[in-house]
Design brief:
homotetramer, 189 residues, alpha/beta, two-stranded antiparallel ribbon
Chain lengths: 189, 189, 189, 189
């Protein structure tokens, strides 16, 4: 059982959503694979490499049930990358998939979701399986061939029976925007 | 039965091999997925796009049992793209996977393998499954995300029982460098 | 005389400078060629194309007396592209040449310098000769070969005698942060 | 005097021309700047970088009197890069400027023109001024900004009086396809 717990993706902690009428949760998306993209709008590698890749993923896998989610994980220049600036950025870069603002932590520069996934910096991406487990997590941008192969495998996995029961179990572990399944990491990248 | 026959990949017809100690046949590779890359050394799109993609495929999927095969399908400028020039080309471009020279047809500009697969031109690529069937065939170069996804699916397929019996059946249909399973196409691209 | 007046570059109107200990004026730079780059930090074409080109110009012509100046001409999303965000942007993109914030106009979205040069949008660039005249102005990004050729011609021009007298003449035409030599354009791009 | 001699470009030695109705000589082109591009059709860096750059030069400076000349300097894989293959290559890559086949030397792998210019390998380029002197010579590909700047300077030079007299002087020094102005280098790259 512990093996499953350590690889289960922690829940998102989001203060504000863009491009979605309703708040998204990983628990609520159980049964679908999720491509989670962590970025900052002033991160050069995000703008030139990872965001274009996410937009290619959106185009190539748009006919599948893959859910793409961006998460704006600001861990530096907080005053420079506000939600107002993010909103204009999403407009100018024609980003149309849901993007959440990672919930700030009063005690640390690194926001909550970033801590939960122990992200080293931006850009990072996490591929989450239909059963809610982390299939792959990386810092930086990997080659499209490898990314495409992993997404295909995630899509081809059968929808688990577990999906019906684990949400409730998982939700019980989440409180105050925080889930117990992973120990929050507080190291900023 | 006819459905199976029409999608079974026809056999290669090769006059000379490079980068392999022994001649390769699709029948002999049954059980493994094959990425077949059709090119000409003076084809700009091959040099700038498809060959770099094949080399990325080789790097990303090098640890799997995917077999990459190049086939030099000369259908124009025959005197300019001889095996001597091809050999130097493979050396200069550091192409290390097996490459076969498509067997010339005395009657047509288009060589035999190219006819069998009804290729429209170069670059073309054909993804062949573990069971010897054509999973995907394309003229031009597709995006890495899509190519990676297809190769992953081909790799994840289970090795078919059929593999033990179909080779003999298929070989019986091949004579004079020609297999009966597909009607040879003679249209040059 | 009118011919000269119409091609003389209008003065910059800047509310805040970065990467320079002292305020810059075109009049003060008379005698040196100036490459003026107009951009917005949330403009995709600026980030992916014109800013990299300016950085190449900086590297290739760094040993000459060419003065490169960036001007942040915000004409949309004003709340999203504040000086605080610009400062972090310059830091993250390692932009080390002087950058001025184009002076906002209370009446129009388009800032003052942008109006004076009748810029159609971002990115734009203006090459100013040693005599203070506009040698070339363009909206969008031109090819490096052409840009390099123009800068070389600007650099090879002899320093004009005029340089000693025209500044005074020009300054007299500037009042209230506005110069008379060009009719301010108020159309936003 | 010797200073002038050492920088005067040696004459081309060409066995076969493509894309030109008449043989070209540097002496005959005196008065015009010349961009000389040395390449081999199986040289990856030539195909991916220098040839595209030459085609950009052709487009940007097509309205000037700059003469672009390609020279196929084969110093390896001689049997693989014959004039027949070169002709098809020029057709497929849509190269329309004059290209000469560097004259083979029976004693060395390196052909004659390549020896005369002491080229280290391919791609190389030589910019020749209106007065026939070598303004710049490089092995590899330089940035467009720098190349554009140098061509602009070559174009802006005034046509020298010398042009009327030096050709005769230079031709007298050329015999047996060889000119005396430079000591032939025989080192292959």
């Amino acid at each position: 059982m512990s093996t499953t717990l350590t690889t289960l993706a922690p829940e998102l902690a989001v203060s504000e959503w863009f491009n979605t009428p309703a708040r998204l949760t990983l628990v609520g998306l159980r049964g679908r694979p999720v491509f989670l993209h962590s970025f900052q709008l002033l991160c050069p590698g995000c703008v030139s490499e990872s965001i274009p890749q996410v937009q290619r993923i959106e185009r190539i896998f748009g006919h599948t049930d893959l859910q793409i989610i961006g998460i704006h994980t600001v861990f530096e220049h907080h005053q420079a990358m506000t939600p107002v600036t993010l909103k204009a950025f999403l407009h100018e870069y024609r980003i149309r998939h849901p993007v959440g603002v990672d919930l700030a932590d009063e005690r640390f520069d690194t926001p909550i979701t970033m801590q939960r996934f122990s992200l080293r910096g931006t850009p990072s991406s996490i591929l989450i399986g239909r059963d809610g487990t982390i299939l792959h997590q990386t810092f930086g941008v990997e080659e499209d061939l490898a990314v495409g192969a992993r997404i295909a495998m995630a899509l081809s996995a059968s929808i688990p029976e577990v999906a019906a029961t684990s949400p409730a179990q998982d939700e019980s572990g989440c409180a105050d925007g925080r889930c117990e399944v992973t120990r929050p990491s507080t190291s900023a990248a």
